[in-house]
Amino acid sequence: MTSRPTTIERVRAALVRPVDATGLAAFRVLFGVVLFAGIVRVLTSGWIEKMYVEPRFFFSYWGFEWVRPWPAAWMYVHYAVLAVLALFIAAGLFYRASAALFFIGFTYTQLIDVTNYLNHHYLVSLLALLFVFLPLHATWSIDAWRKPSVRRETLPAWVLWLLRAQIAIVYVNAGLAKATSDWLFGAQPLNIWLTARMHTPIIGPWLGELWVAYVASWGAFLYDTTIVLWLSWRRSRPFAFAAVIVFHGLTFLWFNIGIFPFLMTVNATIFFAPSWPRRLVRGERREPRAEGGERRLARPVAALIAAYLAVQVLVPLRHFLYAGDVLWNEEGMRWSWKVMVREKHGSTTFYVTLPDGRQVQVPPRRYLNGRQEREMAAQPDLILQLAHRIARDYEDAGYGRVEVRAESLVSLNGRRARPMIDPTRDLARVEDGLAPKDWILSGPTEPPKQLEVVSWR
Amino acid sequence: MRSARLLLVCGLAACGGGGGEPRPDAMQVSFDRSAMLRNLGENVLLPAVRDFDARADALVTAIAAQCDALGTPDEEAARAAAQDAWKQVMLEWQRVETMQLGPVAMDNRLLRDRIYSWPVTSACAVDQEVMARWNDPASYDITTELVNRRGLAAVEYLTFAASLDTSCPPQSAPAGWDALSDADKRAARCGYAETAAIDLAAQAQVLRDAWEPEAGNYVDVLASAGEAGSPFESAHAAVNVVSDALFYVDYFVKDMKIAEPAGIVPNACGLAGTVCPAELESPHAPHGKENVLANLRAFRAVFTGGDGLGFDDFLAAVNAAELSTTMLADLDAAVAAVEAIPGDLGTAAVDAPEAVAAAHAAVKRVTDNLKSQFLTVLSLDIPDDVAADND
């Protein structure tokens, strides 16, 4: 008589259950193609100049202050190599090496300057990192064609579930980020954004109406928080994928968010049945035969996966450790999938007090281009970084220890601009860290401004 | 249907417990961005370009008269008339300068730089051209010269500079200059000023042609933004280009024209905030304060749209009339503060620094709102940022 398996044993068995590798292969191909298009877009748009050549100052991530851009021509070469690597990933050629090099090369471009941070670029880095360790080249790849040892019809289910978990974390957190009074009860910032897009064919005239902004806000909230569920349920999947296409199609139409809509549409396929490409391309309904694979997930691998997922779950929630509105103080904003949830602009001026008491104002434009200034004006830690740089420049020029204060007026979601940084604090003496930043002033408490226009052409 | 929509809005707003009370009358508000663009084009930008073109022609006449009067009893009067003509054209140009969009901004602001290259100017380079033309006036072609040897800044130097000495250091002084008599030096400078003024008038004509309805008709390009064949994706994108132009008051007026020469910010003279005459705009005239006033008034014209639709109406339409009121009040205060600066900017930076600082602070109040709530409420981007991705 055999005893019934425990829950843990059932989970373990489920994690190594063989699943058709073609769904994962299709995901790899589509991901690589989207990345290729995105990289080519950067190469041809002039952004390399804007992001890596023009700036005289780069905002650093902790521990990565040493990262600097190549000379201009080599940045183009760098991106060209990334484009080739993206194609290699898609084709499954030298797959692991390509994924590893792409991860390093792409992440490098992001580490050069914090103002380049985009949520979907972060997602690209994470997925590329996972690709390095996941055998997504097991089928439908040149590697599998060249090397029989690579070739497999099935992969353990944990590979699929790890990717699903990653995408689910993105969607759910993007949804939770919208659970704010501004978004749900003020219809902001969608109200602002939609009224600016009334030139959209057919639906444009409706976009200026407040009720549309409310419907869109709640719709986006519900979409993000539940789409994984609907994509995972076989019966709702076709409708859910249609919703994915419509939702991301509209975001592509309305917002400058680069490859994000395409990336998330590709990512939605990871929730399909693993055999969907086999059925789509070959019309086959049979599942591939299970091959002799893993019987159980090795403990170190399981531990690594658990640690990775724990980080992914907890990091986006870290803003709860800080008082105040994360959209205002930005403490816990990055790497948290708070995608397109605020309209925020500011004006920042630095005031340098020399040891002899003289005061000089320093406009950020002396160091930053327009794109960098916009990003910095909304993010306190970047204001602090530039304050430190200004202090250093004065000290290097022989003025001794100077004091640097910032006047930062910021408007969030259309509200009247208000100070974001304590203008009395000498930022040159403030160190950045994980502790709550007491030099950031409280955010607005009044409701956001609403724009109510019915015939705004 | 409308009541159903209102009901939905009210229901959602009520859920929020004060998350934004819908205004029943707000549903009647309307605004036409294309109409605003047409008004700005027809009644603000085109008139500014026309006025500038007319004044540029008048400058040619005045400098020609000055050159004719050299060595006569009318010389000083003719010189004063030429200086006055330069001031008039400069005032008109400063209106256009504040509205840098369309033809004047194309090709990396090539036309703008040919007309007015400040802060890229060089009195020494102009002196070298004076000598080059003097040596061979028949074959001299100013249109092939660099922008720092042409345009309003060159004419200013030639028309206002009191000394006949070259502005060049000895190693780069134009050969033969010192050997010329004073009369020849005056004639050489006046001749080059006339050449530069003629070139300036030609560039002004190019600019005007680009805007005139019967020629380039950029007014219509602006007004039909978003329609088939338009270079603008939408009327909103064109509005963003106009708002980009307003940022001239932030970077150029507030920082470069007021703060840098006054030492309010670091400048070419150092990091410590010392007064720096080298940073002054129109130092020979001197005309920096008047330029700033013209910029602020041009900003106001674009903001209000004159008697027609402007950004103030746009803000009112989107339930942000109080921001419009604040910005206009700040703008008026800024104009008053600049007017209150005694004498010219260069002198005041030394003798009345508090007045210059007050003017700078007043302009900053305008640009603080421009860079923050103005952009968020109207969903506009700052210059250089339109094409970047977000998320």
What does this structure look like?
The complex is a heterodimer of chains A (457) and B (391). Chain A is of the alpha+beta class. Chain A is 51% helix and 7% strand. Chain A contains 18 helices and seven strands. In chain A, strand 5 (403-412) and strand 6 form a beta hairpin. The longest helix of chain A is centred in the first third of the chain and has 25 residues, at 21-45. Chain A is globular, with a radius of gyration of 25 Å. Chain A starts with 6 loop residues before the first helix and ends with a strand. Chain B has 391 residues and is an all-alpha fold. In chain B, 62% of the residues lie in helices and 1% in strands. Chain B is globular and about 70 Å long. The two termini of chain B are 34 Å apart. Residues 1-28 of chain B have low confidence and may be disordered. At the A-B interface, helix 9, helix 10, helix 11, strand 3 and strand 4 of A face helix 1, strand 1, helix 2, helix 10 and helix 15 of B. Strand 7 of chain A pairs parallel with strand 1 of chain B.
Radius of gyration of chain A: 25 Å
Question: Whole-number radius of gyration of chain B?
Answer: 24 Å
Order of helices and strands of chain B: HEHHHHHHHHHHHHHHH
Task: Please give the number of β-strands of chain A.
Answer: 7
State the main characteristics.
heterodimer, A: 457 residues, alpha+beta, four-stranded antiparallel β-sheet, two-stranded antiparallel ribbon, 7% strand, B: 391 residues, mainly alpha, 16 helices, globular, disordered N terminus
Strands, helices and their partners?
The complex is a heterodimer of chains A (457) and B (391).
Chain A: H1 7-16, E1 18-20, H2 21-45, H3 47-53, H4 72-91, H5 95-111, H6 119-133, H7 142-146, E2 154-156, H8 157-176, H9 181-185, H10 190-195, H11 210-232, H12 237-254, H13 260-268, H14 276-282, H15 299-314, H16 326-329, E3 344-353, E4 359-362, H17 370-378, H18 380-396, E5 403-412, E6 418-419, E7 455-456
Antiparallel strand pairs in A: 1-2, 3-4, 3-5, 5-6
Chain B: H1 2-15, E1 30-31, H2 33-68, H3 75-97, H4 106-115, H5 123-135, H6 151-160, H7 182-211, H8 218-223, H9 235-246, H10 248-262, H11 288-304, H12 311-317, H13 321-339, H14 345-351, H15 353-371, H16 373-378
Helix pairs in contact in B: 2-3, 2-7, 3-6, 3-11, 5-7, 6-7, 10-11, 10-15, 11-13, 12-13, 13-15, 14-15
